[in-house]
Write a structure and sequence with these properties.
CATH topology: Purple Acid Phosphatase, chain A, domain 2
Bound molecules: fe (ii) ion
Distance between the termini: 15 Å
Shape: globular
CATH superfamily: Metallo-dependent phosphatases
Number of domains: 1
Number of helices: 6
Strand content: 15-25%
Radius of gyration: 17 Å
Largest sheet: 6 strands, mixed
CATH architecture: 4-Layer Sandwich
Number of strands: 12
Strand order of the largest sheet: 4-3-2-1-11-12
Helix content: 10-25%
CATH class: Alpha Beta
């Protein structure tokens, strides 16, 4: 099956490129499943129900989150009626919503999506490795799911790479998110899991991680906040990871980088034409 994972879309610029281009990509590439990280979708901070619905209408099948999950307080409420919205897996017990969900793909396949969050240079949380292990014990590839997608939302490359090898052979893909800059190390790990340390953001790259440059620069130079962080509105690059899985094993057979529009060099998976 053909899976596209799209990295953290930031603000209106990130949303626009996804809403404009995703329907065409689904048709051209015959995509079976699309996951989008939406933690920065609303002006860079969190997600609203209206945006969640717009992304589903454009063809997203699952939307993952991260440390910005609750920046829009309404997400704490509407997530309970949003079965395709997945918040960090290792939040404390009792957190609204779900950190892992079984989602039906366009071809009817069962796709398990989970969103563990790292702990290095981030808020303290429960062990993401133990949390992933619990989910995979309860629902294994092939017997329980046709494909398994892990969005590992973390600052440290080491932690994301460790998660890749931890899950290698047990899931279809492990995609790093959160740093908002794509890495060039996408590959299939020895036991068959597609991996990238960070898929990059879907936003305006003429920015500091998707935000207008002035305020971040001011804070680095003077250590005094002058204003708010605001999502940069220039043309976005859609950054993603294209993965084809083997229908008998659920593991990855091909992996490629996707970068479309905006300031970054274009990349598209040659194996999808
Ligand atoms: Fe993000
Ligand atoms: Fe994040």
């Amino acid at each position: 099956m053909r899976i596209l994972f799209i990295g953290d879309l930031v603000g209106r610029s990130g949303r626009s490129v996804v809403l404009e281009r995703l329907p065409g990509l689904i048709a051209d590439w015959k995509l079976d499943f699309v996951a989008v990280n939406g933690e920065n979708a609303a002006g860079g901070f969190g997600i609203t129900e209206a945006i969640y619905q717009d992304l589903l209408d454009a063809g997203a099948d699952a939307i993952t989150l991260g440390n910005h999950a609750w920046d829009q307080r309404e997400a704490l409420v509407f997530i309970e009626r949003a079965p395709r919205l997945i918040r960090p897996l290792n939040f404390p017990p009792g957190t609204p919503g779900r950190g892992a969900a079984m989602v039906e793909a366009k071809n009817g396949a069962r796709v398990l999506v989970m969103n563990p969050m790292g702990r290095i240079f981030m808020d303290p949380l429960d062990d993401p490795f133990a949390a992933v292990d619990r989910e995979l014990t309860a629902c294994a590839l092939r017997s329980g799911a046709d494909a398994i997608v892990i969005d590992v939302h973390a600052e440290a490359t080491s932690e994301k790479q460790a998660m890749g090898y931890f899950a290698d052979g047990r899931v279809s893909l492990v995609v790093g998110t959160h740093t908002h800059a794509p890495t060039a190390d996408h590959r299939i790990l020895p036991r068959g899991t597609a991996f990238v340390s960070d898929v990059g953001m879907t936003g305006d790259y003429e920015s500091v991680i998707g935000m207008n440059r002035e305020e971040p620069l001011t804070r680095f130079l003077r250590k005094i906040p002058q204003g708010k962080f605001e999502a940069s509105m220039g043309p976005a690059t859609l950054c993603g990871l294209a993965v084809e899985t083997d229908d008998t094993t659920g593991l990855a057979s091909r992996v490629g980088a996707v970068r479309l529009g905006g300031r970054l060099e274009e990349a598209r998976p040659a194996f999808w034409g």
